[in-house]
Amino acid sequence: MAMARVSIIMGAYNCTATLPEALDSLLGQTFQDWELLLCDDGSTDGTLAVAEEYARRDARVRVLRNGENLGLNRTLNRCLAGARGEYVARMDGDDVSLPERLEKEVAFLDAHPEFALVSTAMAMFDEGGVWGEKQVIPEPQIDDFCLHTPFFVHAAAMIRREAFCSVGGYSESKWLLRVEDCHLWFKLYARGFRGANLPEVLYLARDDRFARRRRSMRARVNGVYVMAVGFRMVRMPWPKYIYVLRCAALEMGKALVPSFLYDLAHKRRYGKEAPR
Question: Fewest C-beta atoms under 10 Å: which of 38, 152, 210, 259?
Fold first, then answer.
């Protein structure tokens, strides 16, 4: 099989119900010169069977399997090791890529060699449909790490494979679980790479609005940790480390606030930006 221009990497864990919709959204892309490396991360449901069925139907789908649950960072590195495309795109097993996502990201990177990665705005949906939207910064700068980490939607990103591999892919420390994307952005920017965001919503993330249950206390601690080490990596001026303390205060506050208040704030923050 000829080498594809885009390698899509996906870790999948216990997503039998949502994986077909995610994969169908890739099959329906207007840009078709891609390969998918899908790694089942030790699922205990029928995720692997769904993935293998799609692989039988389409030779562009390659299925890998972890013998046990290893976490997203190690799983994605395994996919990255087998990627052959010029560009590497992310995708989650419970989300949806809108039809022109890959086409527009490839066109942007082709036209803008000065950028190593591109992502897009994202909308959130649940069983009731699209309910909110996350806006993005067009051309994030290092100072934007202070208030907007992460400033790229990880699952919607497309990265030049050469840049991806030059920073060693994802870091696998236990302190970086659930924040491997933030650490990747710090690593890329520390090496002089830069990224951009397309303002158009080209990616839909499944979010039932009960976001608090998705983020454990350990993940919140890791979020503060990655910001602290990341600031050092990009040589952030010392006065701006006050934003690390701000991050710690916000994360602890989110962990302690009653669930119904957290959920209400989450809905208000993104719901008011929802497409009409």
Answer: 259
Angle at 123 between CA 117 and CA 129, to 5 degrees: 150
8 A C-beta contact, residue 242 and residue 250: no
CA atoms within 13 A on the CB side of 130: 16
Judge residue 1's burial from the number of C-beta atoms within 10 Å of its C-beta, 0-12 exposed, 13-18 middle, 19 or more buried. exposed
Distance CA 172, CA 75 (A): 10
Q: Tens of pLDDT along 163-173?
A: 999 999 999 99
* Residue 171 burial (CB count, 10 A): 18
Domain extent listing, the chain: 6-264
Residue 216 has pLDDT above 90, yes or no: no
Q: Look at residue 107 and give its three-state secondary structure.
A: helix
Task: Decide: residue 100, CB within 10 A, 0-12 exposed, 13-18 middle, 19+ buried.
Answer: middle
Architecture of domain 6-264: Alpha-Beta Complex (3.90)
Coil, helix or strand at residue 17: coil
Quick: pLDDT tens for 167-207.
999 999 988 888 999 999 999 999 999 999 999 999 999 98
What distance lies between CA 141 and its chain's CA centroid? 19
